[in-house]
Amino acid sequence: MSSIQLSSRTTKRKSVATHKIFGNIAVLILLIVFTLLFIAPFAWLILTALKSPADLDAFPITWLPDHVHWNNFVQAVTLIDYWHFAWNSFALSTIQSVLITATSSLVGFGFARLRGWGKRPLFMLMLSTMMLPSIVGIIPTYILFSQFGLVDTYWPWVLWGLASSPFLSFLFRQFFASIPQELEEAAIVDGCGYGRIFWQIFLPLSKPVIATSMIFAFTGVWGDFLGPTLFLDSDNTTLAVAISHGYADLHGLTLINVLAAGCVLYVLPMLILFFFAQKYFVQGIVTTGLKG
């Protein structure tokens, strides 16, 4: 009887191990498929950037170019004032990412550590604004800024940065709430005020969430199209707007291959940024969910 039970257990273990192996293989296949789906558009963009107009007009579609045309990248930076518009995008992205990270960290610290009447309703009110699409307020914002003479200037991005972000404030609040209360209590016993506690204790510990906030804010402004289109003129606009209509031939037709090359150069800085900051980015996302 015991040998039969032992044989039955062994069979069950082998069955479980087999199911686990097949499950891992299925998950691996799904990950490969989804990875290819995510990579495919960018790969096609790069291939288009290396093609000639004849390759683009060919039918049936040619997947690989007959000859690699690196000159498309040269035209992408010469047909428009590429570096001027790139600097505009970099300046706006840097200004707003720094300001919005600083103000959101202060808001998050207040909701996580300070005590006061109505803190929870205010926090819920702030979270509720995240459900409103940003496009809802773009026209009223434009009217307001135009009345103050702030259109065609960079002041809207400065003011948006000073206003903080509900989402980033929520990230900081979640991270600060996960820091042990003993650190704050020890600092208070030593005579530290909340300003010093925030600056010397909480901020040095929050490098991951700071990096996450900077990446979110920087890429958000870098990739914004509607905001610069409405609030900036053609000379002070950003790279996203400039490359959307700057590559055309003498007949006004869009140069698809040059546009693709410009888009590759446009996306490349964000890929490099995420590559070097991905460690802190992942840590920031993970640690902000430790405590509610």
TrEMBL record:
The chain crosses the membrane at residues 21-47, 90-111, 123-145, 157-176, 197-222, 255-277. One of its GO terms (cellular component) is plasma membrane. It comes from the Bacteria. One of its GO terms (biological process) is transmembrane transport. Keywords: Cell membrane, Membrane, Transmembrane, Transmembrane helix, Transport. It is a multi-pass membrane protein. It is found in: Cell membrane. InterPro entries: MetI-like, MetI-like_sf. CDD domains: TM_PBP2 (cd06261). Its main location: membrane. Gene3D superfamilies: MetI-like. Residues 86-277 form the ABC transmembrane type-1 domain. The keyword Transmembrane applies. Belongs to the binding-protein-dependent transport system permease family. This is Sugar ABC transporter permease. The lineage of its organism: Bacteria, Bacillati, Chloroflexota, Ktedonobacteria, Ktedonobacterales.
